[in-house]
Amino acid sequence: MNKILIVNGILRRDDKVLLVHRNPDRPFFPDCWSLPGGHVETNETLAKALFRELKEELGIEITAPKPLQSVQHTDPNGASVQFNPFLIEDWLGHIHLRDDEHTDLVWLPLDGTQDFAHVQPDGFQQVLAGLQSPQSDEPPTSPAGSTKLIS
User: Per CATH, is 4-129 categorized as 3.40.50.300?
Assistant: First the structure.
């Protein structure tokens, strides 16, 4: 079985990252917070897929994405999935949800107060934590029981 390739954008602005809430009707990772992105199509590069997915999902055109550590995952059907996150700090357009894959979006602070335990799939937590700039002596918190995160 071939590896399934996924691209994800970590949009960062003012020491915050954008998370999207997946629709409860989605077959994989329903009703959870994640990063925008999607499947890489046949004969498509990771970069082209990232540009396409963020245009489709958020209505933006990204510039200068920086690849980060990939995340390996096995889906419920046993397929091998490789998530390829990219750090994006510059884009054109106003971010808004353009499809029914997501029900909400939020900017989450990278100030060392979040533990990202609520972000799926597993593995994204470490990628996001690596971007944090701790500025607080407060212990990490997780809004996992909430459908609204810190805006």
Answer: no
